[in-house]
Structure formats: structure tokens, C-alpha cells
């Protein structure tokens, strides 16, 4: 088998005595979509935040393309071309869409000053692809709807040619049409060879979009399955009962 | 699906303010300021709006206004700095001791040596920046709340200042140093007019450049008449301000002494205006630079992003701890520059210099629209806030209101201004 794009080995982290993530290992290959499933509070967001640099793990190792990676802050993650759509969206509410999209990576003029009109033009281009109904380019994102805000967060992750994309419930606030567009987008990015971690509560969406699915329960990994080998009922019993179908077969 | 890139941008019906893209909040403040000035002018039989009083008002505002520029950044990032008045005192003490004791006694520089003032100023700014950075380090890296760090700083630096001078008044300060104080350093009418015309042209060029950049990307622009009106008003305000400062004549006795100092006799009937004070020019340069920093640099963008959502800024790769250090270092540098202006105006370093300035500076920033919740604030707003505070204070003094009553009024105005702001923001739907 090829070297995985990402390997997270034996990751653990606790918050004040509570093991939010307990000895979890997952991996991801180029052009693969891996679903992360689990009940509320299972530890999915916390696991991927260790990859995106938001949290430093208590234990565990991360390998990118087979090489040990030290990711201690979001800047490190960006240097590995890891882009993240956070569940909380992580937008600065007082800034407009373009400023948020380019936050930390502003386009500058030859004099080194931020180039707002160029950033707005780029933002208009990408939003035309992702959410053509989006028009509020000059309003602070606090004035946007939940779905519009989510579109901005998605645009930010997609714009910068990620190799590894983390999507934490990217369609939670989206309407059916916009959700469909994100599904198309995931398929297109996958075809481009990008590896994607997709956290989603919709089992059907996971079966449809993902190659494999890892299920977590109470901070522990229940198991990882190929989506084409399982039914939605199998996944649901993994999520709810913590039963690994592979164990039953063995 | 339609081709979104060629979709017209929907034009809602706009009122005149939106059309001109004028900040109605700022207009409200300017309006309040104008009413205040006219009111005081009526009550003082026209003494409030004389060139002399306008000149004095501006030079009294400079020190607080310079620090208010830095306070905007501090408050925008959800911090506070209670130590600015004390830091000003320490920087003033350091600069006073450098020019009156250290340079002459230790390095043997003679009094009047042209290098004394620049060296003293550099020493002061370095000290202010270092102290500010130290505050920022404790706030950013040790995560001690800014309120506590700077409350401690207030006690420490007020008394370090005292310690450095043993509580004595130090002076008179170097004559070159005094140029930054106001009346002792003005540009004269000719130079002031030249700068005024350049500033007016720059303002107009700025307005039209912004328009060009917008239309180059196909974004909607204001109608031409609106840009013309705005250009006209900007030029009129700048040149009107210069004309007023030029109209304040240097008193005859002082002029005669100036001529005598250069070994000449004053021609009969000679008279000349003060023009733009160097300290005001310094404030303008700082205000313009800080506005560019706020709006057009990454540093400024990160300040506002961090104020809006610190977690989002951090997750977007902004090093918010280092940012905090830089913001407080900048605040410290501005305190040192204010110390130059304040001590030069008094021609001495005094022990109580800058006392209560922290409150004036915070009030100026807040009246100027800086939100304590973070993420919002402008440099020009803070300067206008400082000007309104100073006008209130001097106006009341001229009308003959006793000092305790003055403070009561200023306190009420501060609370009222913030309340009006809250109501205004609720109505306009701003956060
Ligand atoms: N910063 C934090 N401080 C303390 N506890 C935390 C923190 N972040 C997460 N936790 C705890 O860790 C556990 C896992 O949380 P996490 O957000 O990873 O869950 P999740 O699987 O993403 O859930 P959801 O589906 O609701 O998003 C929860 O018990 C949560 O309360
Ligand atoms: Mg989550």
C-alpha cells in the first residue's frame, strides 16, 4: 500500500482529567475521503484539532507523507497545506468575507500594504463557484446568515490549494442546494488528489461521499470500515452501541 | 445556473449618507463637537472660537490624542492600558534626566549641544517601547489580564518616575527639546500654508485614488458629484484650520525677544502669526500613520481580527501573543512621544505630569467610538474624542465652571456618549 498522506498514531488528549481523545489512530490517503462519525462529545472535533494545530496532543504522533510532523500551532499545520473548516467556523465577525478568507495570508501591494480590492475580487470569484447567491461582500460576516457564514469558511479552506482538508460538519447550516454543491465540491477535490477528513452526522452522506469511515465513542476509536462493505445500520450500531462489525466477523 | 461573475451587484435604495459612504456615527460626533464649540462661543462672548483659543485647544489636546491613537489598538484587541499616564511620567523623567544630568555630567556634552534633544528623545522612546513590550509579554505570554498588569504598572511607573528625579521638578529642558511643546515650536504662516496645500492635495488624491482602485475591479463607486463634494469639504477643513492657526499673532513682546535672541532689532509694526505648531504636526503624522497601519497593513488587520474573535485569529495563523506584545510596545512608544510633547509644553519635567491621563485617554478612545467589547474603533474617532474632552474642559473653565463641577460634567458626558452609541448601534444594526 502507498504511504498515507496523514497518519495520526495513538493520539490522546485530556481536558481537566476527562480523556476527550484516548489512544486514537486514523489515517488518510491522497484522493481519499475518510468520514469521522460519533455521538455528540465523542471527540471528533478534538481529534482533528490536533491535526490542525489548535491543540497540542498529550500523546501520539502525526506523520505526513510518512514523515514525522510536529504541529504545535495552526501556522505549522498551514505549512503542511492542511486547511480546516471548523465546526465553529472560526470567523472574525467584525470583518467582511474577503478579510476573513485571506486572514493570515493577505494579498499585498508591492509596497506591502493589504490589497483589499484584489482580495474582494478573488473572493467574488470563488464565491461565484461555491455559492452564487452570495452577494454580501461589503458587510461584516456578523451580518450574514449561518449558511452564508459557512460558505465563507468553506471558501477559505478551498481557496489556498490544500493537500489535506479537514471539514468539521461543513454542511450543518446549509440548505439542500448548497449541501449538494458541497458534495460536488468534495468529489471534485477528491478527484484532484486531495485527502479529506469529513466529520458529519449524516450517515447517508458519509456512505455516499467517503471511502472509509472511522467511528468514535467516548473518546475511543470504535473502528474503521470501508464504506462499501457496510450498511447504514452497521454504521449506526457502531455509533450508538460501539460495536465493530469487523470484530463480529472475526 | 447564471454566470455569477457577470451578475449585476444589486443596488438598494440608498439615502444620502450611504450614497456618500459617510460614517453617520462620525458625523454625529462632528455635529456634537460643532454644537459644543458654538455653545461655548455664545457663553464666552466669542472668546471660545478665537484663533488664540483654537491654537491653545489644539496644543493642549496633542498629548492625550497621541496616546489615544495607541489606546484604540489596545481596546480593539479587548485589552486596556491603565498605565499610560504613569508610563508618560517615567519616560518624561528619563528624558529629563538624560538631557539635564546624564548627557552633560557623564558624557560631558555642553548645554545647548544640538545632539542633546534627539538623544534624549531616542532614549525615552526606547524606554517606553521596552516597558510597553514587557507589559505586552506579561499579558500575551503569561496570560495575566491587561487590567491587572497595567494597574500594577500604574503604581510602579508613577513611582519609578518619582524615584528617578527624587520627586523634584527637572528643568528647564533643552531649548531644541521645547520645540515639541507648542508655542515654542511653530512653523510660521508660510510653511504652514505650504503644508496645508500639500495636505489638501493629498486628501483629494486619496479620495480619487480609492475611486480608481474600486472601478478598476468593477466595484460600484460613488457618483462624481459626491466625490467632488467630499474633496471640497476636506480641502476646506484643512485650509480653514491652517488659516485659523496663522491668524493667531505672536505677542509683540515675545517677537521682540525672538529678534533680540538672533541679534537683530524688530522692524516697526512687524507682526506674524504662529502657524501650525510642531506638536500638532507630530500628532497629524502619527494619526495618518496609525490609520494606515489600522487599515492597510497586516498588523492592523490582525489587530481587528483578534478583537473580533481571538480564537479565529489564532486558528487563522495569527500569532496573537506576539501581536499583544507589539500592540503594547507601540502604546509604550506613543506614551514616550506624548511625554516629549507634555514636558516640552511645561518646559520642565514635573512630578505629577500625566496624572489621570489614563482616564482621559481611555475616555477619548471610547467617546471616539472604540468598543470595549473589541473589534471596533478608529484613530480619527479617538482624536475627535480627545478634542471633545479638551474642549469641554477648557470651555467650562472659560465660562467659569469650578473644577469639581467640570469633572462631574466630563464624567456624565462619558457615560452618556457610550449610552448614545449603544442606542445608535442597536438601531443601525451594527454589532
Ligand atoms: N477546550 C475544551 N475544554 C474542555 N473540554 C473540552 C474542550 N474541547 C472539548 N472538550 C470535551 O471533549 C469531549 C469531546 O469534544 P468534541 O468537541 O471533540 O466532540 P465532538 O465529537 O466533536 O462532538 P460534536 O458532534 O457535538 O461536535 C467533550 O466531552 C467535550 O466536552
Ligand atoms: Mg464537533
Characterise this structure.
- The complex is a heterodimer of chains A (250) and B (431).
- With 250 residues, chain A is of the alpha/beta class.
- Chain A folds into 2 domains: 165 residues, P-loop containing nucleotide triphosphate hydrolases (Rossmann fold); 69 residues, no CATH class.
- Chain A has a 6-stranded mixed beta sheet, with helices on both faces. Chain A has a 4-stranded antiparallel beta sheet with strand order 2-1-4-5, covered by helices on one side.
- In chain A, a hairpin with a 2-residue loop joins strand 1 and strand 2.
- With 431 residues, chain B is mainly α.
- Chain B folds into 2 domains: 317 residues, ABC transporter involved in vitamin B12 uptake, BtuC (Orthogonal Bundle); 91 residues, no CATH class.
- Chain B has 16 helices and no strands.
- In chain B, helix 3 runs parallel beside helix 10 and helix 7 runs antiparallel to helix 8.
- The longest helix of chain B has 29 residues.
- Chain B is globular and about 65 Å long.
- Chains A and B meet through helix 2 and helix 4 of A and helix 7, helix 11 and helix 12 of B.
- The site of adenosine-5'-triphosphate has 12 residues of chain A, from strand 2 and helix 1.
Write the layout of secondary structure elements.
The complex is a heterodimer of chains A (250) and B (431).
Chain A lengths: L5 E10 L2 E11 L4 E6 L5 H9 L6 E6 L2 E3 L4 H6 L2 E4 L11 H5 L14 H15 L15 H14 L4 E5 L7 H16 L3 E5 L3 H7 L2 E6 L2 E7 L5 H10 L3 H5 L1
Parallel strand pairs in A: 3-8, 3-9, 6-7, 7-8
Antiparallel strand pairs in A: 1-2, 1-4, 4-5, 9-10
Chain B lengths: L15 H4 L4 H20 L7 H26 L7 H23 L9 H25 L5 H20 L22 H29 L7 H24 L4 H10 L16 H19 L1 H11 L1 H6 L4 H27 L10 H11 L11 H21 L3 H26 L3
Helix pairs in contact in B: 2-15, 3-8, 3-10, 3-13, 3-14, 3-15, 4-5, 4-6, 4-13, 5-6, 5-13, 7-8, 10-11, 14-15, 15-16
Magnesium ion binds next to α1 of chain A.
Amino acid at each position: 500500500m502507498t504511504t498515507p498522506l496523514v497518519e495520526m498514531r495513538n493520539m490522546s488528549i485530556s481536558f481537566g482529567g476527562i480523556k476527550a481523545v484516548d489512544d486514537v489512530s486514523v489515517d488518510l490517503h491522497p484522493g481519499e475521503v475518510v468520514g469521522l462519525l460519533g455521538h455528540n462529545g465523542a471527540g471528533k472535533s478534538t481529534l482533528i484539532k490536533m491535526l490542525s494545530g489548535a491543540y497540542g496532543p498529550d500523546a501520539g504522533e502525526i506523520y505526513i507523507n510518512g514523515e514525522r510532523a510536529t504541529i504545535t500551532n495552526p501556522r505549522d499545520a498551514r505549512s503542511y497545506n492542511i486547511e480546516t473548516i471548523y465546526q465553529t467556523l472560526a470567523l472574525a465577525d467584525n470583518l467582511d468575507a474577503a478579510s476573513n478568507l485571506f486572514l493570515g495570508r493577505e494579498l499585498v501591494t508591492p509596497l506591502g500594504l493589504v490589497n483589499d480590492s484584489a482580495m474582494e475580487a478573488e473572493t467574488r470569484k470563488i464565491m461565484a463557484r461555491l455559492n452564487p447567491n452570495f452577494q454580501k461582500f461589503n458587510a461584516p460576516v456578523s451580518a450574514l446568515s449561518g449558511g452564508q457564514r459557512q460558505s465563507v469558511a468553506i471558501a477559505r479552506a478551498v481557496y489556498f490549494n490544500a493537500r489535506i482538508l479537514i471539514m468539521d460538519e461543513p454542511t450543518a447550516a446549509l440548505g439542500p442546494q448548497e449541501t449538494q454543491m458541497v458534495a460536488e465540491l468534495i468529489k471534485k477535490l477528491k478527484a484532484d488528489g486531495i485527502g479529506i477528513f469529513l466529520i458529519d452526522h449524516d450517515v447517508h452522506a458519509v456512505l455516499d461521499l467517503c471511502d472509509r469511515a472511522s467511528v468514535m465513542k467516548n473518546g475511543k476509536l470504535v473502528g474503521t470500515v470501508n464504506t462499501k462493505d457496510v450498511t447504514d445500520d452497521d454504521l449506526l450500531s457502531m455509533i450508538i452501541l460501539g460495536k465493530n462489525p469487523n470484530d463480529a466477523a472475526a | 445556473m447564471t454566470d455569477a461573475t457577470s451578475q449585476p451587484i444589486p443596488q438598494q435604495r440608498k439615502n444620502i449618507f450611504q450614497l456618500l459612504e459617510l460614517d453617520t456615527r462620525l458625523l454625529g460626533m462632528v455635529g456634537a463637537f460643532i454644537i459644543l464649540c458654538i455653545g461655548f462661543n455664545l457663553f464666552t462672548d466669542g472668546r471660545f472660537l478665537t484663533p488664540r483659543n483654537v491654537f491653545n485647544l489644539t496644543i493642549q489636546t496633542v498629548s492625550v490624542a497621541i496616546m489615544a491613537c495607541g489606546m484604540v489598538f489596545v481596546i480593539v484587541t479587548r485589552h486596556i492600558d491603565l498605565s499610560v499616564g504613569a508610563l508618560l511620567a517615567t519616560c518624561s523623567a528619563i528624558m529629563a534626566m538624560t538631557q539635564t544630568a546624564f548627557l552633560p555630567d557623564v558624557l560631558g556634552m555642553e548645554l545647548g549641544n544640538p545632539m542633546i534633544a534627539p538623544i534624549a528623545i531616542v532614549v525615552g522612546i526606547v524606554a517606553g517601547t521596552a516597558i510597553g513590550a514587557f507589559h505586552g509579554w506579561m499579558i500575551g505570554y503569561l496570560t495575566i489580564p491587561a487590567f491587572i498588569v497595567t494597574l500594577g504598572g500604574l503604581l510602579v511607573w508613577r513611582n519609578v518616575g518619582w524615584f528617578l528625579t527624587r520627586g523634584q521638578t527637572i528643568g528647564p529642558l533643552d531649548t531644541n527639546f521645547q520645540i515639541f511643546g507648542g508655542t515654542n515650536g511653530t512653523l510660521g504662516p508660510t510653511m504652514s500654508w505650504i503644508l496645508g496645500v500639500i495636505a489638501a492635495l493629498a486628501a483629494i488624491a486619496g479620495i480619487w485614488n480609492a475611486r480608481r482602485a474600486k472601478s478598476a475591479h468593477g466595484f460600484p463607486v460613488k457618483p462624481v458629484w459626491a466625490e467632488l463634494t467630499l474633496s471640497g469639504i476636506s480641502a476646506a477643513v484643512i485650509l480653514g484650520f491652517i488659516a485659523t492657526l496663522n491668524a493667531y499673532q505672536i505677542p509683540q513682546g515675545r517677537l521682540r525677544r525672538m529678534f533680540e535672541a538672533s541679534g537683530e532689532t524688530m522692524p516697526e509694526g512687524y507682526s506674524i502669526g504662529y502657524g501650525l505648531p510642531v506638536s500638532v504636526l507630530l500628532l497629524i503624522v502619527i494619526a495618518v500613520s496609525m490609520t494606515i497601519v489600522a487599515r492597510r497593513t497586516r498588523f492592523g488587520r490582525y489587530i481587528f481580527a483578534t478583537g473580533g474573535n481571538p480564537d479565529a485569529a489564532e486558528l487563522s495563523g495569527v500569532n496573537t501573543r506576539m501581536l499583544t506584545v507589539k500592540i503594547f510596545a507601540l502604546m509604550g512608544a506613543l506614551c514616550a512621544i506624548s511625554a516629549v510633547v507634555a514636558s516640552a509644553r511645561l518646559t520642565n519635567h514635573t512630578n505629577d505630569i500625566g496624572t489621570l491621563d489614563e482616564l482621559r485617554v481611555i475616555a477619548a478612545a471610547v467617546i471616539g467610538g472604540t468598543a470595549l467589547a473589541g473589534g471596533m474603533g478608529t484613530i480619527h474617532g479617538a482624536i475627535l474624542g480627545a478634542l471633545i474632552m479638551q474642549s469641554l474642559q477648557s470651555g467650562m473653565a472659560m465660562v467659569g465652571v469650578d473644577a469639581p463641577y467640570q469633572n462631574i460634567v466630563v464624567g456624565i458626558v462619558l457615560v452618556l456618549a457610550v449610552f448614545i452609541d449603544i442606542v445608535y448601534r442597536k438601531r443601525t444594526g451594527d454589532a
